[in-house]
Task: structure prediction
Amino acid sequence: MTTKYVKNAVGRMIPTEINGQPVTPFQGPHGYKTTGHKYSPLIRTCADYPDDGDKRAPDLKAALLKSGLKDGMTISTHHHFRNGDLIANQIFEIAAELGVKDLIWFPSASFPCHEPLIEYLEDGTIHHIEGSMNGALGRFASQGKMRGAGVLRSHGGRYQAVQDGEVVIDIAVIAAPTADPFGNANGLTGPSACGLLGFALADSLYAHNVIVVTDNLVPFPCIPWQIQGNNVDTVVETEQIGIPERIVSGTTQITKSPDRLYIAELTAKFCDAAGIIRDGFSFQAGAGGTALAIGNYFGEIMRGQGIKARFARGGSNQYLVELLDQGLVDYILDGQTFDLEGVRSMRENPHHVDTSPFTSYNYHGKGNFASMLDVVILGATEVDVNFNGNVVTHSDGYLLHGMGGWQNCLFGKTVILPIPLFRDRIPVIRDEVTTICGPGELIDVIVTERGIAINPRRTDLIEVVKDSGLPIKTIHELKGEGERICGVPQPPQFEDKIIAAIKWVDGTVIDVVRQVKE
Amino acid sequence: MTTKYVKNAVGRMIPTEINGQPVTPFQGPHGYKTTGHKYSPLIRTCADYPDDGDKRAPDLKAALLKSGLKDGMTISTHHHFRNGDLIANQIFEIAAELGVKDLIWFPSASFPCHEPLIEYLEDGTIHHIEGSMNGALGRFASQGKMRGAGVLRSHGGRYQAVQDGEVVIDIAVIAAPTADPFGNANGLTGPSACGLLGFALADSLYAHNVIVVTDNLVPFPCIPWQIQGNNVDTVVETEQIGIPERIVSGTTQITKSPDRLYIAELTAKFCDAAGIIRDGFSFQAGAGGTALAIGNYFGEIMRGQGIKARFARGGSNQYLVELLDQGLVDYILDGQTFDLEGVRSMRENPHHVDTSPFTSYNYHGKGNFASMLDVVILGATEVDVNFNGNVVTHSDGYLLHGMGGWQNCLFGKTVILPIPLFRDRIPVIRDEVTTICGPGELIDVIVTERGIAINPRRTDLIEVVKDSGLPIKTIHELKGEGERICGVPQPPQFEDKIIAAIKWVDGTVIDVVRQVKE
Result:
């Protein structure tokens, strides 16, 4: 059996099959249109559920058995607890103990705390991971040790894949900081409070079996119900679902690096000069040190001009909450709270609204929030001279990161990547990125400590900032400066084996990642 | 073509087809199980919707044309504005003007304000109504003048029918007191504030085309989004969507009739004697004068015993809100606000929670709220000696009411019908009800001004109240008393023509209504 390849719309060679499933190659950011129907779950009946609404099972093992856990199933979990998750590993421990094999793990993201799952990838309990493979898991995959190919999706792409039936979840396990015996659940209160549970929304709607696990059971009704008990099969009460100090980082701080601060300032100045920061505008920045600094600069500019933003998209944190509390932002539309201030604000302030990958990012909906944003600030491991971006692999070829909402955010009106010119003496701007996660036509501006490059497609931006005094350069000039300092790096060497596919927001494959030659 | 009939589980003869669709006869309250899949709507793509989220069309006509309005389509509307709705009639006015024929109107309920639609039933614009036909519309149908048969469903049954694909909605028109150009909408604010939009939830999820019409457009984001813009195709701004004083009755008052007050008191005493009113219990009463009085008596009992209810289901009103504000009820889980106090409380109090037919009533879910209620207080036009209940026809055979959530509420742990022994000198307790809307095995207690009858199946209730001093009688005794006063009424005379089907909560047909012989 020889694998066939086709060249997709960004020039990457894509196999026609991955994990035995047919592949649709990427056809441009808006190119692919499906005429299919959404996945249609089985009709359930109240006759099969307890009249008194008490769906409790004694423990996770009992709940998994009740859900019919068996070989080859797809099991989903969620990263609301980030590096403090205590549940995902337990599931596969139980499965291994039961001798269940060839499971597909479908997390919304993975973290270093999931490194113990390598044991279950090795012993056959888990066949492969459909989702981000960070750190050790990514290295394991990059070494060609995972049996199936990983499938990486954006947060919105994950929702799309479940909604459209590309991934059929047999058992969804939703760890919830607060829940009632009926399965209503939220992330706002309890010892493991994480803010919201939006990453589990698709799973709750479409999975065959839905298990809610909580360490804070309250009498019905659990209000608000971010996850609705009417979609839940089984509830498990357990001692601890997450490690609080790893759930919220608590220490997310504005960068102190002079280079990063300069990049942040330059980014904010660019937005100001480009007329993006105006009354009623909207923005999304991340929770990294540079992004936080940019948010602060935005706040200064708004204060100075006596204007405010209509909404900001989170990941929220203390700095964004400050802008909300000071009336500089009308609403935070939040997909993920990054610190305790974010959790508190979401719990208390009706203007701090929880969102989901459905509302914010799903490309197969009737519009989404991402495309309405005036400006989006994102990161990248590499960018190339055609403005293509990479967020999953390093320049040595190893798959070490997930995509989060990165691809989805590319649909914002202006997309800016504030990035250093080099990291560990390896230039970030390349002739070609190792892995294309987003096509250059959606990336508008690169801001580095040595200057700003504007995508030639954005003639409007080039025009409006041309007399701003900002250090505008071409992407080739920036690339040249990086290489003058660090030299031209050797490209990584790969084996033939495909260890992961990178899905675009519409379910097509934009690139693949291969085993690293070691 | 001769119609075939089968006898269903409550002994009613049911045709095998209604409106050309095959019929599943009622098989007992929990008897029917489907192995089908939920309806799967088309996959949509953001590529077909405006990036800036602005989905406005200039007017309702333009929106209907954009939605592809044509002969034979199913058009849904909602009764959030009750008798103050200004939109449903406009839709069919426009359709008639465009010469569109044979539409199916699928309202969540109809009101006297919809009487003008008779013109469109007569001129062929509307083929038939799938939904309640109150007052004049019901009389029109009962006279055999509607071309198709009406199909009456409970609120939960309507959700079930849409979810399961029994009714495929071509165009849903959702009138919303507040909305943004993306289609996010709520009922909490604006000149036509009605509280919530839960009756339109199914339609927003499953209809091919969703139009939101508002007279209070706000900039994105409209918070909260009871209806999510991600499910909406088109937004229309219009001058007025509802007549405020008819949206909320404002005048819902506790009964002053001594007989009704006595029935209310007896009902509350019964609940107390039966041990139903205990700390942490739950209840649902309606918004009629008797039900309001019962709620008040419940409040007195709770105050007296120093206990509180965990939750009450609304229809909310000033009296229920008072119980919430006084801490006698932890949560109101509300499906419909009946007065301005209800709207205000839902807007301001996080413990006053909006629900939908999905959470509360959908029988084809993983449980629902209705079965968790300790006690439910309902009305009926007739009850028979087997405790079967009727809420849609009068004893003269005319179809004059919809079912609301009545059938769904029958799943509460104890179901009590406080009803007068006669109305207009016609006895309410009969040998057989004109139309069976709910099977007697789900109806536990009948409370009248002449005594209380307990369903013989509820030996537990009979036992616990036997020494309470309450006037417990058999249903036959009560029937006899009614007939001694009013005489034995003549049964109504019917033609063969079936003018409406009564669906059970699971989509089976529990009874049909025939044309009245005039």
Remarks:
- Chain B touches chain A through 62 residues (CB under 8 Å).
- The radius of gyration of chain B is 23 Å.
